[in-house]
Each structure stands twice: as structure tokens, then as C-alpha cells.
Amino acid sequence: MATPSSRQEGILVEGKSSGADRIERLVLRGLNLRVGVRGFFLKCIQPVVIIVAVLAALCGTASAQDNYEIQVYSYELVPKGMTMVEIHSNFTVDGEKTVVNGVVPSNHAMHETLEITHGWTSWFETGFYVFSSIQPPSSPMSGWQWVGDHIRPRIAAPESWHLPVGLSVSQEVGYQRRQFAEDSWNYELRPIIDKKIGSWYLDFNPTFDRALHGMNAGKGWGFSPNVKISYDFTKKIAGGIEYYGALGPVSDFDPINEQTQQIFPTIDVNFSPAWEFNFGMGVDVSNSGDHLIVKCIVGRRFNWGHGRKAAERSGMTPPSK
User: pTM for this structure?
Assistant: First the structure.
């Protein structure tokens, strides 16, 4: 996924709910605490609420693809005509050591994910994931194992709307083998709201997920908020904090000791307009999930020789005279 770029100052909005109607009601109630903010909502946030409401009505919670793709999504898409290839490498230093609900242990497992994303228009991209796991010799399924595949279409509010924050909505659906997940088919709906303010970057993904087939099918929507706050130390290096939560069903959150609350200090490096890098080490402060994980993301942009305008927009080539 492309890293954020500077945008005009605005407001970072967070929200959660137990249903499509409640989403809009709660957001409106909070925004109306300030004079004139309702107008901001109608202009900026309502498109996301409408999309969430429609999709929630069409889809009936998928748990997050745990420890295969650990990333807070930024608003920006891969430019039209370009392709982004990323490798996600996540090693569980201290995790689950026994088989639980038919899922193999995560302790000392290396999860490798290939992500390929193509920009079709200025407002639409599609990502495809191949999940795999390198299990230690002590695992019931030792060696390099294919886990599953996901597809992720995403749309973004066009820059011509001149919104004060970046807004996009991602959907993700896919399959994973039962030995590696309690649910074999999952669906995820992820609104993305971010803002660049000077050297600071703020990003919020109020993610809703649902199991389509498996142990948790029929349990309803789950709420898994993701947050990123970072600071640009230089034009190429930024440091920050990422938070990943899995709070349980939106209608009745799990007890604190059963929730997942992971915090990752991270560093982002843009080696060049074509290459980017993210590294972090995270702990689960709730002690209900994997306790210590090291993650690394390496990304490379390609224009395949016929996307000069897209390459110019991304800074990969000098602009035409």
C-alpha cells in the first residue's frame, strides 16, 4: 500500500457502532457537539456512512487475518496504471504453543504474505493476497504451508472533492485453510480516514469483520479498530506507533481479558519513490493473543513501461517537459 503524502489540515474522525443505522446516529451525535461540524459531516463523512450501511445490509463477522498482514491502511491508492508488490514478513517470537480449536500453534511461526495491488482508475484499485506460513519443526504441520488467498477491491474519494481528510473504503473477502484459522471464509469492511498535519500523520481504520463460514459464522459483526500516529523525522524516515485491536461483537464487546490489544512501535522508510519499507515490533498488552511479534513490509512500485503519467504522479520519473 502506498505511504501517505501531505494534505491540507483537517479533522481525524473515529467511529464505531452495532449496525448501519447506529453508525450514522453515533457519528452525528458526536459531531453535533461542535457548531458547524454537521456541515462537515454531510460533506465529508456521509459518503463513508452510506457505503458502510449498504454493505452491512448486503453482508451478514470475519475475524481479521491474524498476523499475516499487519498494516494500518492509508487513504491513498496505487496510481492508475501502476502495480504495487509487497512482501509482509511476520515472525511470532512468543505466541500460542498448543493447538486451539483446530488451529496450529503460532509460536515461532514465520508468516509470509505476497500482496499485489493494481490501480485501475484514480479512485479504484484491487489487491490480491497469497498467505503462507513457515511452521517450526515442533508444529503439527511443519514446513512452508499455503494458508489461503484474499481479494481486496478499494475505492477512494476523488481529490476533486477537496475533502479536509483522506477517505477511502476497502472490502476484503477470502479463504484460509481450517488448520490456520477458526473460519475458512471471511469478509472485512474497512473505512479509512487519515490526515497529514505538518510532520504528523494520523490514520484511523474502524474495521468491521464477519465470518462467512466456520466456527464464528452467525456471531455477527466484529469491531477491530486500527490506528497509526507517526512523525516525519526526515523526508524519507518516519517513526510512530500502530495499534491493532479486536474487541469482539459490536453489539456486546468481549471482556477486556479476551480482547486483543496490540501496540507496535514502527519505522517507515521511503528509500526512493519506487521502494518503501516498514518495520515494527509489537506486544499484546491484553495477553489474550500472541505476545510478541516482529513485522516487516517491503514494497516496490512498477509501471510496466506504459504508465508514465502514473509514474510522474508517484515521483518515479521526472515530469514531461
Answer: 0.76
pLDDT of residue 35: 35
Instruction: For the chain, give the longest Cα–Cα distance.
Output: 62
Residue 207 is placed in which grid cell?
474495521
CA of 31: how far to CAs of 37, 46, 197, 205, in Å? 6, 12, 20, 18
| Residue 220 Rama label (left phi>0; alpha psi -120 to 50; beta) | left
Q: What is the pLDDT of residue 95?
A: 92
Q: What is the pLDDT of residue 185?
A: 97
State how far the Cα of 125 lies from the Cα of 77, in Å rounded to an integer. 7
Cα–Cα distances in Å, from 318 out to 52, 78, 207, 273, 306?
39, 18, 37, 11, 15
DSSP 8-state secondary structure symbol assigned to residue 42:
I
Of all helices (H) and strands (E), which one includes residue 308?
Answer: helix 308-314
Strand partners, 204: 193, 227
Where are the domains positioned within the chain?
20-314
Contact 88, 73 (CB under 8 A): no
pLDDT at 290: 87
Amino acid present at 86: E
Spell out the alpha helix ranges (H) of 3-93. Answer: 20-31, 37-40, 46-58
**CATH 2.40.160.40 is held by the domain 20-314:** yes
Distance CA 49, CA 35 (A): 21
The stretches in the chain having pLDDT less than 50 are: 5-24, 26-65, 317-321
